[in-house]
Design brief:
110 residues, mainly beta, Gamma-B Crystallin, domain 1, 4-stranded antiparallel β-sheet, signal
């Protein structure tokens, strides 16, 4: 699944395809968020609300959730935030690649 997610992130971001089918409404893929750096998935997270810390950099996110997610500057969830819409695969802008955590929210879109 990690290779598939990495390929999905790379292909979707390269082609600028902003939306993917939500796994929470489809059985094709699990309801998860995939974090990548340089095209390789380094974390797979559930779509449940909460905070997860990680080591930067982060260069891509593929979300199969129905909830929005926020990359946060610091590991404790503080600092700046970068919103990721549900059902999106995106390349993270250079200014936000130093994020140290992600929060899955309870609301649908950014």
């Amino acid at each position: 699944m990690r290779r598939l997610a990495a390929a999905f992130i790379a292909a979707s971001c390269a082609l600028m395809i902003p939306q993917v089918a939500s796994a929470e409404s489809s059985k094709a893929a699990p309801a998860e968020i995939y974090l990548s750096r340089s095209g390789t998935v380094f974390a797979t997270l559930p779509c449940t609300a909460g905070l997860t810390s990680f080591s930067p950099p982060i260069t891509g996110v593929a979300s199969y959730c129905t909830r929005r997610s926020y990359l946060r500057q610091y590991g404790n969830g503080t600092g700046w935030s970068y919103c990721i819409n549900p059902g999106a695969a995106t390349t993270i802008p250079a200014a936000y690649q130093g994020a140290q955590s992600i929060i899955v929210g309870a609301v649908a879109s950014c």
